[in-house]
Amino acid sequence: MDCPRCKNTLIILELDEIETDYCTECGGIWFDKGELELIADNEKAVKELLSYFSKDADIKEKSISCPICKKKMDKVYVDKNKKIIIDECPEGHGLWFDKGEILELIEANEIKVKNNIISILTGIYRDKIYTKSPEEQ
Ligand SMILES: [Zn+2]
Ligand SMILES: [Zn+2]
What we know:
By secondary structure, the protein is of the alpha+beta class.
């Protein structure tokens, strides 16, 4: 499967027991349908995770194609404040998060996520988002 952003071949990235597809080039990550729910720690967290998803046809961001069916994906807000925009296949194949967006979503909505998944994600995206300078610590 190719990256919908940069066409690089996606590699399998195991997040705990979830097999996601990850782009080593641009840092994007693909969740097949139903996989995103598996990052949440419990039923309540799953509900919270999905509760802020809202499709918006007016978002002007450049559209990209689903890596499975190649259809133009929909733009979806995924956080309380409508700042984080991800791409969702209109046929329901899955969700695409650009670099770091998955962590931004978890942080913004304060979702309870399985600990080992958080450590894998921060391991990948640490440089961009989570690295604090010594003065801040
Ligand atoms: Zn890419
Ligand atoms: Zn699709």
